[in-house]
Amino acid sequence: MRLISLQRQFPWPADVPLVELRSWIRQQLAQEGDLLRWALTAVHSSADGARTLQVEAVISA
Question: Per residue in 11-60, pLDDT tens?
């Protein structure tokens, strides 16, 4: 088993409500490998209303 530490930024789609955000983030990270641990470390908003999520994770590959 090899552990990999990731830092990713994802645009937060307007059609993903807050109550579904956890499962959406997990889906995005699952594409990288088996998800062991993750954390939402920042949310950035731009002047035009776009939101970006900063996520750190550990996966096994």
Answer: 999 999 999 999 999 999 999 999 999 999 999 999 999 999 999 999 99
What are residue 58's phi and psi, to 5 degrees? -125, 130
CA distance 18 to 15: 10
3-state per-residue secondary structure call for 1-61: CCEEEEEEEEECCCCCCHHHHHHHHHHHHHCCCEEEEEEEEEEEECCCCCEEEEEEEEEEC
| 3-11: strand order across its sheet | 3-11, 51-60, 34-45
